[in-house]
Structures are given as C-alpha cells and as structure tokens.
C-alpha cells in the first residue's frame, strides 16, 4: 500500500532546511542549503525541488508526495507569498507557494515560521489534543503563534499574532521593524544580550546568550539579573495576551527557552502577578516538546497534514 508523504521546507535568513515527513512525524529526508547563496528565489526552489524529486525516486514504490508545507519569515497563509521579509535578500512580494506547487504539482501551504512551529506543537508535541494555546519562539527575535478553538489565528490579512511587536516601552529600544520598545527587543536572545551589556558595561567582549546562561550558572549576578529582567517583561506581556484568548497553556521554544528555570521562574512569577484574577492558576507556561533540530521541519509538514486531516 502506497503511503503519503509531504515535503517540509523552512526558509531561514541563514539556511533553508527541507525534508520529507510522514503523517506520524517520521522524517525520511532532511537536508539544508544556504539561503544566501540564492539571491533569486526561483533558483532556490529549483535546487530544493531537485533534491526532493531525487529522494522521491528512491521511495516511489512505497510513498507518494501529497503536499508541500513551507514556514517562512513574513509568510502569508492566505496569499502563499513571502511579503517584505527584512532578513531575506529577496525583496518585495515573493509568490513562493506558487513557485513550489508549479514545480512539484501538489498542494502547497505557507505561513510564517512561528505559526508553522505552533501547528507542529499541536500535531506532534505537548499541545496535542489542545484547542487553545499560545506558542512563543525565543530566538534572535520573538515569534508567536496563537491557536483558538483548534485553528491558527491569521486575522483578515494573514499577519495576526505578532506578540513580539507589542510595544512594552514607548521610546524604548530600537526594533528592526522600525518602531521602538517592542517586546522582542527585550525578550529574545538579542534582547537579553542588550540587557546584560547594560548591566555589565565594563564587559567589552563579544558574547552570546549562551555565554550569559553559562555566567548565570556560575553565579554571575548581572547574568542572573538579566534573566530576571527578561522574564519579568515576558511574563507581563503573556499575562496581557491571555486576556484576549484565555489559552489552556503557553509554550516557550527556542534557544532562550533552553535556559530552564533561569527564564521560566521569573516569567511565571511575573505572569501570575499580572494576570487578571479569573485566569490565575489556570494556565501553564511550559517548554515545547518539539526537538530543537526537527521543529522547523515538523512545523512545516504539519501545515499540510492539518489541511489533509481537516
């Protein structure tokens, strides 16, 4: 009996990861190429499709390709386009979904990378069986996916759910979006680096968020304070988000979430402190169960599997 597969593609500013995934989340193929090597999107599509087709030839007696799922920055679910993504060389509007569907002749679904990861959590992670939750990615920036009654919230134009661009401090830190004081300038790997630099101005070396974590583990007061400050702001933002959707749980994913109690403890304390009384002690903030290395692939694959199952 022929089984179904979907092609899963995650477009990142540095790398594009792609693979083949079955309905149980088993990854049969996983490869990557450097996104920056393809200033023309059509060239990237051609190379990725060539790899996918070669792999499908090996599996053709067992598997059939039934769709393509794509997670991408500024990916619009309704149009299938990447629209004005600041971290990609491709400028303007790129009809990426159509480019892939034309090459592979199957249904193609596209959304932004955080939304894709949220759907991956719902299908293959800790949100399985949940209909209302918020998914937060704490990476270079802060991404988010909001699920209500089992459906991703896209809004009227496909761009809903940008919790990272809620302004926490008017005239605060400069954000890449052009505004100031956005949540992601404080609660992200980039944000905590800026906080630590302010708390330890005499430390002139180049450092990463991992370095701050290591310093916190060793008892460095400024590093611990940086995590506490980050968690305080994140908890407040999440408490405000609850007032809109009343989720069952909030999942944290990404490098900063791997700091464990250093980020979870101050976040949860601030969250409970700032919650409206009717929500207190009802909503868990917990780590994602998606494997860091496979989340992008599983999230992109989930886009198609969710459509097929629905």
Structure description:
With 310 residues, the chain is of the alpha/beta class. The chain folds into two domains: 3-118 and 293-309, ATPase, nucleotide binding domain (Nucleotidyltransferase, domain 5, 2-Layer Sandwich); 129-287, 2-Layer Sandwich (Nucleotidyltransferase, domain 5), CATH 3.30.420.40. Helices cover 37% and strands 21% of the residues. It is built from eight helices and twelve strands. It has a five-stranded mixed β-sheet with strand order 3-2-1-4-7, sandwiched between helices. Strands 10-9-8-11-12 form a five-stranded mixed β-sheet, with helices on one face. Strands 5-6 form a two-stranded antiparallel sheet. A hairpin with a 5-residue loop joins strand 2 (15-21) and strand 3. Helix 5 (209-217) crosses helix 6 and helix 6 (221-245) packs across helix 7. The two termini are 22 Å apart. The model has no long low-confidence stretch (mean pLDDT 94).
List the helices and strands and how they pair.
Elements: E1 3-11, E2 15-21, E3 27-34, H1 41-59, E4 63-71, E5 82-83, E6 93-94, H2 96-104, E7 107-111, H3 113-124, E8 133-138, E9 142-148, E10 151-152, H4 189-199, H5 209-217, H6 221-245, E11 249-253, H7 261-274, E12 284-287, H8 295-309
């Amino acid at each position: 009996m022929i089984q179904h597969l979907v092609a899963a593609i995650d477009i990142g500013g540095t790398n594009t990861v792609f693979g083949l995934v079955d309905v149980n989340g088993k990854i049969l193929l996983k490869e990557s190429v450097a996104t920056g090597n393809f200033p023309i999107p059509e060239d990237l599509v051609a190379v990725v499709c060539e790899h996918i087709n070669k792999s499908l030839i090996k599996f053709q007696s067992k598997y059939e390709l039934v769709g393509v799922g794509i997670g991408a920055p500024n990916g619009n679910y309704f149009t299938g386009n990447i629209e004005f993504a600041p971290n990609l060389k491709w400028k303007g509007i790129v009809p990426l979904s159509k480019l892939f569907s034309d090459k592979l002749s199957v249904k193609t679904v596209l959304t932004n990378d955080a939304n894709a990861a949220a759907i991956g959590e719902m299908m293959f992670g800790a949100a399985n069986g949940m209909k209302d939750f918020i998914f937060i990615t704490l990476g270079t920036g802060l991404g988010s996916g909001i699920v209500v009654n089992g459906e991703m919230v896209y809004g009227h134009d496909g761009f809903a759910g940008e919790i990272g661009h809620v302004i926490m401090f008017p005239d605060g830190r400069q954000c890449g979006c052009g505004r100031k004081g956005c949540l992601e300038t404080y609660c992200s790997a980039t944000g905590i680096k800026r906080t630590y630099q302010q708390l330890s101005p005499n430390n002139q070396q180049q450092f990463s968020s991992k370095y701050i974590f290591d310093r916190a583990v060793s008892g460095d007061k400024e590093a611990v304070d940086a995590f506490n400050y980050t968690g305080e702001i994140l908890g407040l933002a999440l408490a405000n988000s609850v007032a809109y959707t009343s989720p069952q749980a909030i999942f944290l994913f990404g490098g900063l979430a791997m700091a464990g109690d250093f980020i979870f403890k101050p976040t949860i304390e601030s969250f409970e402190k700032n919650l409206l009384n009717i929500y207190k002690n009802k909503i868990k903030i917990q780590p994602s169960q998606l494997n860091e290395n496979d989340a992008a692939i599983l999230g992109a694959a989930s886009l198609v599997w969710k459509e097929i199952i629905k």
